[in-house]
Amino acid sequence: MIHIFEQYPLLKERIPYVQLGEFPTPIKHLRHLGKEIGTDYLYLKHDGLSGLIYGGNKIRKLEFLLGDALRKGAKEVLTFGFAGSNHALATAVYAQKLGLKSTSILLAQPNAQYVRRNLLLSHVCGAEIHHFKNEMAAYIPTTIMLLRKKLKQGKFPYIIGPGGSSPLGTIGYVNAGFELKEQVASGLVPEPDKIFVTLGTMGTAIGLTIGLKAAGLKTRVVSVRVADVKYANKEKFVKLFEKTLALILSSDSSFPCVEITDDQVDIRHDFFGGQYARFTEQGMAALNLLAKSEGIRLDGTYTGKAMAALIDQVRGHGPKNEVILFWNTYNARDFSDAIKGIDYHQLPRCFHQYFDEDVQPLDKRHSE
Q1: Which end of the chain is more exposed for a tag (fewer CB within 10 A), N or C?
Q2: Is the pLDDT of residue 86 over 90?
Q3: Candidates 50, 85, 102, 166; catalytic one
């Protein structure tokens, strides 16, 4: 049983859940990277190993969202993202595992090697994938698609918002805060002063913030923005925090009624790179440094940028005795065998551009 259900049994009765992941995820002391940047107190929480098939931060959210889909008798789920969306891929992987169909509405993004890999695995998992230039272009076709599915199947697909960052999905990372508390109590890691994590659709950072507060840890969550500020900002952070907490309290009023103030929302904006999924020199340097020193793989869109912010903090701004935990949200499972030999021409034609055109320069340099 997951930690939040053990401590608050009413939540187990009232909140939908299906087990998908492998928890708790391990913690690693980053001694080699710490030596490189000047600290002995650097750790990593490896959510890249959260699933046997496919890891990353989305599995924690999907345990609640797909649990809700099953409870409501859904036969199909529909979600949203960009072309290389890790969330859309995770949804396809675990929906298939549960016998659900999946559809992904995907928007255009800068090209990268991971985009190609994710699209191929989505195809292998039987996902129905659609590509649009932007949100406006997707709106009417998606509405028509939903109506057609309703007419054909008798009900709409179960809708999962971008990143799975609804109040229900965010509970996955509330639980992660309690999971970390247990690992601190077991001596696997000192209580962190700061946790560095990416900020895209915000559910991971917000869930952690609630969970850490409710579990009694004083750890500060440092969110490194990797999405446009219209999606990831302080006002929306507080709003989702409040909605998630309200959902939990409506199911079990004994859960701590934690609060958040503006000064506790720590968002770092300087590592975004100006466009979603555009790799940065700082992010790629951080990615390469972690790979060389610890053998752990990050990505250029999300976790490389968060690691760049962490390194900047340690080298230039923070006291050297701070305990810092990097929460790795990037999949660490190798699925190359699953997509080996798959011809990208089997994908809808609109996705061929990601295979025919060059990847962005920083990714090309890295892959060479």
Answers
A1: C
A2: yes
A3: 85
